[in-house]
């Protein structure tokens, strides 16, 4: 069986619109001011790969394979969404799909997932 590695992901750095200093591997989003804030239930979310205090530079990743904290247990091969705490959970209907699980995870695990190139509701 052959394996290949994907190295294509993009990053975006902007002002932290709230204190994200303890939010490495949570999911963030861009607010209406262009700041990075914590993503919430059903919103589009991208892995925070460089956490920061309020009004410092934070960085999110989009596309490619990202890592984020599981907010609940889920299986490999399922669509993922953001929960109320900015963590990964199984996507229900009517919420933005942020990616697809590569492995099963338990709540609290930092898990790799394929990020959606254009998250959809």
Characterization of this structure:
The protein has 121 residues and is mainly beta. The chain is built from no helices and ten strands. The chain has a five-stranded antiparallel beta sheet with strand order 1-5-4-2-3, with no helix packed on it. The chain has a five-stranded antiparallel beta sheet with strand order 6-10-9-7-8, with no helix packed on it. It is globular, with a radius of gyration of 13 Å. The model has no long low-confidence stretch (mean pLDDT 90).
The radius of gyration over CA amounts to: 13 Å
Q: Which class do the helix and strand fractions yield?
A: mainly beta
Instruction: Tell me the number of strands.
Output: 10
Low-confidence stretches: none
Proportion of helical residues: under 10%
Largest sheet: 5 strands, antiparallel
The arrangement of helices and strands along the chain is: EEEEEEEEEE
Ends apart, CA distance between termini: 35 Å
Described by its quaternary structure, the protein is single chain
């Amino acid at each position: 069986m052959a394996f290949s590695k994907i190295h294509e992901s993009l990053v975006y750095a902007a002002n932290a619109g709230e204190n994200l200093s303890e939010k490495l591997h949570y999911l963030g989003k861009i607010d209406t001011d262009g700041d990075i804030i914590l993503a919430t239930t059903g919103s589009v979310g991208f892995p925070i790969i460089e956490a920061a205090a309020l009004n410092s530079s934070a960085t999110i990743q989009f596309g490619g394979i990202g890592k984020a904290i599981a907010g609940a247990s889920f299986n490999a091969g399922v669509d993922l969404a953001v929960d109320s705490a900015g963590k990964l959970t199984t996507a229900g209907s009517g919420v933005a799909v942020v990616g697809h699980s590569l492995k099963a995870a338990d709540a609290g695990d930092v898990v790799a997932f394929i990020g959606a190139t254009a998250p959809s509701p």
